[in-house]
């Protein structure tokens, strides 16, 4: 489903080829944690081990992360399976969602409209049913705007809520 949504609106930047391995490891664990087996999409700038976090900028393209961010580690510990990274505007400083690396992300029902920013790739992917849960960030509306532009429920992440 995520690939179908991506073909239509260009919302993904990377796919995790080891998500099947993650699922097999989870199946072997005796304890089923809070997010057991839930596929989750991750906003591009959030570090995932073995992947690039470009921030929409060319200068970061060759820098593969050796470690995942704390939030990704916590999600995995709770049984979630990060499977894709999603598009953001360059430097995340825009209410649209376009970067010179990955291009423009469109709003699913009306392609002439934006899915919002800066977590616009998350909004578009979730709106299309390609992911049931996405992790973004929000300082100036980066989750709240895409949620409202895409007709979704979004929660501004903070330390207590996570």
Automatic annotation (TrEMBL):
Q: Which Gene3D superfamilies match?
A: Amidase signature (AS) domain
Tell me, what is an example of a GO biological process annotation in this record? fatty acid catabolic process
* Any GO MF annotation of the entry: amidase activity
One Pfam family assigned to this protein is Amidase
InterPro entries assigned: Amidase_dom, AS_sf, Endocannabinoid_amidase
Which stretches make up the Amidase domain?
A: 4-162
Q: What is this protein called?
A: VDHAP protein
Which organism does this sequence originate in? Mionectes macconnelli (McConnell's flycatcher)
Query: What taxonomic lineage is listed for the species of origin?
Result: Eukaryota, Metazoa, Chordata, Craniata, Vertebrata
Identify the coding gene: Vdhap
């Amino acid at each position: 489903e995520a690939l179908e949504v991506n073909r239509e609106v260009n919302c993904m930047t990377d796919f995790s080829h080891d998500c099947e391995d993650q699922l097999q490891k989870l199946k072997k664990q005796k304890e089923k944690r809070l997010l057991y087996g839930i596929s989750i999409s991750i906003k591009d700038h959030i570090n995932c081990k073995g992947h690039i976090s470009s921030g929409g900028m060319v200068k970061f393209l060759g820098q593969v992360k050796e470690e995942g961010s704390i939030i990704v580690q916590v999600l995995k510990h709770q049984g979630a399976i990060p499977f894709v990274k999603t598009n953001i505007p360059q430097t995340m400083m825009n209410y649209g969602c376009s970067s010179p690396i990955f291009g423009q992300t469109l709003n699913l029902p009306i392609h002439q409209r934006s899915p919002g920013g800066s977590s616009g790739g998350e909004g578009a992917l979730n709106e299309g049913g390609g992911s049931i849960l996405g992790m973004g960030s929000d300082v100036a509306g980066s989750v709240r705007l895409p949620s409202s532009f895409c007709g979704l429920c979004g929660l501004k992440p903070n330390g207590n809520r996570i």
